[in-house]
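Hey, resending since the last one bounced:
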Amino acid sequence: MTPDPTAHLTDLIRDVPLLQSVLEKIESLNLPDAWLVAGSIAGIVWNHQAGQPALQGIRDLDIVYFDPQDLSADTEAALEAKFAEFPLPIDVKNQARVPLWFEAKFGVPCPPYRDTPDAIASYPTTSTTLGVRQVGKHLQICAPFGLVDLFDGVIRANGRLTTEEVYVKKTTRWVAEWPHLLVLPWSERVLPESPTVTL
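The structure tokens again:
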């Protein structure tokens, strides 16, 4: 693993103009507890390791925020429209609203989240349990499992909320795109100790 994974991840993100522009847009909108999360962040790391273009294999960008006072799907759609200028599809989700639809989609209940880092800590794998946001001139990183698995190319299931079906589906696609990844069996799933934010 790289000696300073936080600095290395920051450098990789800074080197992708699209991600930098999206982070600046998120900050300008002043959304509550908003982060760019999950596969788009991991994907630039894996592409760097594979010597591929930074955005190869990244289908969309996921932006999340936390607003228990407005649980409207229309609000999420209106926010997505604010990112229409960008070349990749952008999915905006209020993490306070996720428990309302999660069980119908994935077959397991989702207890209410405390905040966005708590939601990030439930994402399907240790390598994609990530959030990044711009705070002034700095990047803030939320990494409940740390960054070891991400930079080691290890895919390990997060057993907090995801199912084996979701885990297999995601990892099958990822390995087709990034063959260097090592996917651990579902039986080796783990739980995060707690949501953490690294400055």
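The chain has eight helices and eight strands.

Sorry for the duplicate.
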